[in-house]
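Handout, tutorial session.
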Amino acid sequence: MPEGPEIRRAADQVEQAVKAGPVAEMYFAFPHLQSYEASFARANVIKVETRGKAMLIRFDNGYTIYSHNQLYGKWYVRSAYEYPVTKRQLRLAIHNEKKSALLYSASEIEVLRDEEVEDYPFLAKIGPDILNQETSPEELYERITSRRFVNRKWSSLLLDQSFVAGIGNYLRSEILFEAGIHPGKRPADCTDEELEQAAQALITLVERSYQTGGITVDEETAARLKKRGQSYAQRRHWVFNRDGEQCRIDGTDIQKISAASRRLYFCPTCQPE
């Protein structure tokens, strides 16, 4: 499933396309939405936001289109009315004179009045989105140490969208490595220094992944590994998907475990239990 940075990059592409001119035609695959198609004729897009793994396309007609890609959803941006060759099912199409923004395979799409957006069930319960709103390390430290979250294991806490929106499986492993925290710990088990490192790592890793197209190692390490001939996939992460390979910091073998029913990777020396 794409995580927050991937959805934000998709939103950037969609925004550039749909703001190129007023809507020429709107298409909804789901019957309960088709009555809205005429309401979008000649409407203009104001902006495209993300809230974790959800996307909000805001129009000047008082409506917002909410979508969540879930496991299989994918956006394509093409020249107007040019469709990709794919076996996926088209769920939403926004056409203007120059571009088409096309959402395939997504199962969760809704049309909301602007005043209904904040009360939509998924949006009402999620935590801050680092890529959509200014969030400081101090604010995240307070959130981490709050009664609601402090006694949760990091391995499950980081996947909880009500904690911080947009964190998924690869970011979970990478954030814990960057902070030097063992995945079996809780915030309550951590030192103040570890908690401060975790708050900063949340911001650093999400922003870095967004800016680099999914790379979570630092710029210097990425450049060094690229110079050695490593592919994008090989040089992308500190620990994620690297079980049995050597830690980039101290050479220890990376370990893989299952946590919250999903795979998690860590370095046992950089992240001591």
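The second record follows below. Compare its token runs with those of the first.
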Amino acid sequence: MNRLNIEQGSSRHSAYDLRNPNADLIERHTLAVIVDNEAGVLARVIGLFSGRGYNIESLTVAEIDHTGHTSRITIVTTGTPAVIEQIKAQLGRIVPVHEVHDLTVEGPSVERELALFKVSGDGEKRVEALRLADIFRASVVDSTLKNFTFEITGSSEKIDAFADLMRPLGLTEMARTGIAALARG
């Protein structure tokens, strides 16, 4: 083996390659952030993500304490472990943020999402859409002679699967809430 071949192969399995082999793994994390319910807080949190090029896969916000004027922001994001740690640290430094919880690492959690689907069709497609909705435990929340609107709650994977089955049956519109999550126990 000549020197060129040794050098080309050394970057993969060299004892001198000190990079962490897990450093490039992209992970999905669900963060729960408790904040003051006041104008501009959400913009500051979102600004942290957009300013640093971090991705948000899902975002939900709602007031959780009317008397204490606090809200819960649930963010699903992806990144390397170092990026996730950086996001948590930077969120914790924003003044109206009270708590930052990484539900992914703190233990088991429950995640659910709500979605509405408008499906247009008639005849067999209409019957098939109703049959599949029953299997997925989706509720009909509106019906006309040409459309059904289904409501479904569950994991993101369940909602994705339902959408995939409804597309060929006449899915015309979809709205999703994003993930709501709580730690178990």
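Points raised in discussion: Helices lie at 3-13, 41-52, 81-92, 124-135, 156-166.
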